[in-house]
Amino acid sequence: MSDRCPSCGASSAIGEEGRSHEQGGVRYTLMRCGACTMIFWTPLRMPDRHYYESLELDLDSSYYETMHTEGYGELPIHQKPFFRHCRLRQGQLLDLGCGDGTFLRFARAAGFDPVGVDFDAASVESAQRQGLEAVSSSFDEYFQEARQAGMRFDVVTMFEVLEHQCDPVGLLRGAFELLGSDGLLAGTVPNRVRFKPFGIDRYDFPPHHFLWFSRDVLEAMLSRAGFMDAVVSVELFGFRMDELRNRLGRPVKAFVARGVRGRSQREPRVPGASSASPLRGSRAQVLDAIKTVSRLAAAPAKIAEAAGERVTGRGASLYFQARKPGLASISH
Question: What is the value of pTM for the model shown?
Answer without folding.
Answer: 0.78
